[in-house]
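Give me structure tokens for this 245-residue protein.
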Amino acid sequence: MMNKKARELGITDTSFANPHGLDNENHYTSAKSLAIITKYALNNKIINDVVNTKTATVNFGSFTKTLNNTNSLLRTYDKADGVKTGFTNGANRCLVASASNETNRYIAVVLGADTTQIRFNTAKEILEKCFERYEQKDISKYLNFYVNIPVVKGNIKNYERKISDNLSIPITDEEYEKIYIKQDIIQNIIPPMQSGEKIGKITAYIDDEIIYEKDIFLEEDIKKKNVIDYIIESLSNMFLPIEVI
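Here you go.
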């Protein structure tokens, strides 16, 4: 189930051999994939709250125990709000850390650190660099599209739509200038097609990284041209103005 979910998230460089993370030659991942998994997991309120909890007291019948979060950034770094420490003999000291300000949340992943202090210091440094370098920028000007698709023997000649979207993301000035758009729209419409059918996708990139995706769907039914449509078209053509040279 873990491997299936990873594939659903677009992760291809990760293999789970067990649910607990102990060393196994078939158990591996990457820093980027851990960041993607963490971003997804933090959408779960329970997980989000747990990873930001410094201490918790649990009761087992008459036995009570206080648990302390091993992520010391929660106590030493005021922006920290997660996520998870880790250690095995094979992986060494690891950490997935997150931090937030009023507008953004960033995730840093440190793998294979020689000491506990190195992993915490490195994660904090990465997170602070994010807050320094990135700012929320409106990329809406890139998200205005015009779709014009020929309709083959349909009740309309072309399907035309203006499509726009509003989005702000944390990026640098340099990255903002690198944004480019790809439109993957069907070449023509062959009726009948129903409203709601997918006709393409718009994707925005910075270099090879996808920063925005939008599926495009028909907003009306497209029907085959019937006899009445052909008659009306013929009559219209009869009364077209004639250009005199």
